[in-house]
Amino acid sequence: MNHKNKNILYKLLFFLPMVIFLTCITLPKEYVPDDKIIYLKQPYYLTPVKYKPEKASPYKWDVDPEVDPVNPGILTLSDYNTLLKPDIYLDAKIYKETKGHLQLMKEDPVYLSLKEQLLNIKVEKPLPRKIIKGEKTKDYNNAVEYQYPEEEKALISFFHNNEIKITFKEGRKYFYKTNGDYFEEDAKGTELYAVFEKNNSFRINMDGINYYRSDKEQKLTLEQGEIMKFIEPFPQYSYKPKDKKYKYIFFVEDFINEKIDSIALLHDNDVRYDYLYKTDAVLVTFKEIEAIAITNEFQKSQHYFNKKTRTTEALYSYYFPEGIRIADIHKPLTYSSINPIWPENYLEKKMGYFKIFYTKKDEQLLNKINAQKLLEINLLVKRLTGINFSNDRAVVLPPDLESYRKLHARKEDEILYWYPSGFQTKDMIIMWPPSVKRYEGEEGDKYFWEKEFYEILAHELAHLAIGEVTSVFSPVPVWLNEGMAIYIESTYSPDTKHYWDIAFNVSHDR
Fold first, then answer.
1. How confident is the model at residue 172, as a pLDDT?
2. Under a CB-based contact definition with an 8 Å cutoff, are residues 428 and 465 in contact?
3. Which of these, 122, 157, 38, 42, lies nearest to 416 by C-alpha position?
4. Which is deepest, 122, 207, 214, 324, by most CB within 10 Å?
5. What is the pLDDT of residue 114?
6. What pLDDT shows up at residue 42?
7. Could you write out the DSSP letters of every residue in 238-261?
8. In whole angstroms, how far apart are CA 3 and each of 98, 292, 371, 427, 447?
9. Burial of 177 by CB count in 10 Å (0-12 exposed, 13-18 middle, 19+ buried)?
10. Rounded distance between C-alpha atoms, residue 292 and residue 74, angstroms
11. pLDDT of residue 372
12. Dihedral of CA 487/491/493/495: which sign?
């Protein structure tokens, strides 16, 4: 170290104690020491109850329902709206049923038999009849009739609209249309075959076997059901069992090795279930417009469905296993629906613009909540943020600290070194457990229920409002998010503003 640097170091060591001393004597008298800063706004005369750090892990969802892959519920469960509700048990059942049933169907003997017959059938397109006329036999208002030289006692009619009909002696009829299509019927009017020139296709009925072929697809209908092979838009086989209101589609990568990419079950009412091999996920699609995606870990989300690419795109809703749906994520404002399935067996009560979730043992404590103050907080947050967020916000009152810690935990064995007065998570406000003391004595209990409860609520509701307008999954910077919440809380409570003015001055001066 050179001589110049040594002199600078000596000066710092000399002046540092003086700086610390001057800073301390100039601090406001109401300065809150660091070891109490976590208790934020409590008056000086209250003594916070300190709880020791404890480990906590998030709630675990051991969901493994029994299903019958042969006769699963998805064969009859065709109401798409049922799946829009947050229900991890139903989601797990839908995933397991869809995957198990569709994998089983790829080995279905009826399907494999029909597929083999389709691939081995040898039928050529019927050729058109020769259009020639013999001696004229009759004039009609709309046609002229002639003998048909190709067959005995057959007649050919030329209509004024340029269509042609040949009638054979046993009653068969052949029709030739102006667009080049032609078809033939038996004496009872049953179609024998039809040829469509525009797309180079034909269908034919052979002893109860109906066959159709074009450049892009083949179809075979037998007594057991219907089998189809499509080339476009994706290589696939379609199988419809006889007299059923649903069909199956087997998507393959190509028609050479026929490796299955995905399998689908389509109901007649436009609800469709897909199992995707590559992602090991299930899609439930409605009218091929929107889809519910369920992963192998039973994580569910709602999306726009692009039927051209068979993929999900814009995110509409996201589901949490606790029983929470955050919806309209693709719109300026979101909303949430919450049906908690935590083991505490929460009850629900509507209070003003809030839904309060509580346990039976805390029911009497709800009488301490002032409904008018709840209304004031809702209106205050809307006015100060300028966000007309959705109402019916969920406020959870945990029964004890263990539940509180589990709701706060983000990972396994997370240690909660300090206990916040409340927090917001997954579009919910988690309040301090109302039956757990925060302060010593009756004054502390009175302070919590008359003041602090609503200050916490105002702060956390501001976070939810900001999250709603900026999207739950792309939050604003912490300084802006917390700054707005503190501003709103301080506007509601003069004591809170006084505290934060002190905290700001201390932080700024130091």
1. 95
2. no
3. 38
4. 324
5. 95
6. 64
7. EEEETT-SEEEEEEES-TTT--EE
8. 79, 72, 71, 60, 60
9. middle
10. 14
11. 95
12. positive
pLDDT in tens, 198-256: 889 999 998 778 999 999 999 999 999 999 999 888 899 999 999 999 999 999 998 88
In sequence order, the 6+-apart residues with CB closer than 8 A to the CB of 193 are 126, 183, 184, 202, 203, 204, 205
Contact 273, 288 (CB under 8 A): no
What residues are paired with 251 via a beta bridge? Answer: 236, 262
Give pTM, 2 decimals. 0.79
d(CA 338, CA 325): 6
Residue 383: how many CA atoms within 13 Å on its side-chain side? 10
Q: Which residues of the chain fall short of a pLDDT of 70? A: 1-42, 471-474, 510
CB count, 10 Å around CB of 221?
19
> For 325, phi and psi rounded to 5 degrees?
-120, 120
- For 66, 87, 293, 294, 321, the CA distances from 83, given in Å and listed in that order, are 18, 8, 10, 10, 14
What's the DSSP call for residue 439? B
Task: Enumerate the H helices of 26-76 as residue ranges.
Answer: none
The CA distance from 38 to 503, in Å, is 12
Write down the residue that tokens 């469905």 correspond to: 305
The reported pLDDT for the residue numbered 470 is: 76
Q: Please name which of 430, 452, 273, 269 lies closest in space to residue 340, comparing C-alpha atoms.
A: 430
Q: Which residues pair with 182 in a beta bridge?
A: 176, 195
> Which pair of structure tokens corresponds to residue 350?
């509507």
Question: Which distant-in-sequence residues (6+ apart) come within 8 Å of 216 by Cβ?
Answer: 199, 230, 231, 232
Q: E strand or H helix at 225, and its extent?
A: strand 225-230
pLDDT (tens digit per residue) in 320-379: 999 999 999 888 888 888 888 899 999 999 999 999 999 999 999 999 999 999 999 999
Judging by beta carbons within 10 Å of its beta carbon (0-12, 13-18, 19+), is residue 491 exposed, middle or buried? middle
Q: What is the CA angle 282-272-110, rounded to 5?
A: 95
Interacting residues of 189 by C-beta distance below 8 A, sequence separation 6+:
none
Phi first, then psi, for residue 37 (nearest 5°) are -60, -25
pLDDT for res 487 = 92
Query: What integer pLDDT is reported at residue 7 of this predicted model?
Result: 43
DSSP state, 278? Answer: T
Give how far Cα 194 sits from Cα of 57, 184, 214, 345, 422, Å.
Answer: 68, 7, 12, 65, 74
